[in-house]
Design brief:
four-stranded mixed sheet; single chain; five-stranded antiparallel sheet; Immunoglobulin-like; alpha+beta; 175 residues
């Protein structure tokens, strides 16, 4: 049973799809995101008078407009990695986790609607909020035995290591 609070935050555990290895849909999604960001960066280039030398700034600004930021953390134990990602407002059906031997990729897309009222006219603008986060892992993992749960806007991915490593408790933070 999935319960929702007044703010629409998911409070029950749910499981987003986890895929092992590369999928064609992932490469298609990456290509689509790259095209979207490229188009927006070019629009920013034109807006600024087609002046050379601002390509990195335009790209980063376009990326920021097109993708929502995802805060992640990675903890390592002897047997597994545990990755946590903050994805407020996304449901398990909006997310996809793709695991390769040394990489975890989280993608998500949700439709959003904004209603604005001017006078007596109600305008509904549709759009999409997207996330894309890819993280290299320090050692190989068993991609087919990964599990992921989503609760209260936090995605937790448990990733078993391919071979037991040295005793370590490493924690990294990434934006």
């Amino acid at each position: 049973m999935v319960e929702k609070s007044a703010t629409g935050v998911q409070t029950a555990l749910s499981r987003p799809p986890v895929r092992a290895g590369k999928t064609e849909s992932m490469s298609e999604r990456m290509e689509r995101l790259n095209d979207t960001i490229s188009r927006r960066a070019y629009e920013l280039f034109e807006r600024d008078g087609r002046v050379d030398g601002n390509d990195v700034r335009h790209w980063l600004e376009a990326e920021k407009e097109c993708l929502l930021p995802v805060q992640t953390s990675l903890k390592e134990t002897d047997a597994e990695f545990v990755m946590r990602a903050e994805v407020p407002g996304f449901t398990a059906s909006d997310l996809e986790v793709n695991v390769e031997p040394r990489r975890v990729t989280i993608t998500g897309r949700r439709e959003s609607k904004q209603e604005t009222k001017e006078g007596e006219t109600l305008t509904v603008q549709g759009g999409a909020d997207e996330i894309f986060r890819s993280l290299e892992l320090p050692s190989e993992v068993i991609a087919t035995k990964v599990s992921a749960t989503l609760k209260d806007g936090v995605l937790e991915i448990q990733i078993p290591k391919a071979e037991s490593g040295k005793s370590a408790s490493v924690e990294t933070q990434a934006a």
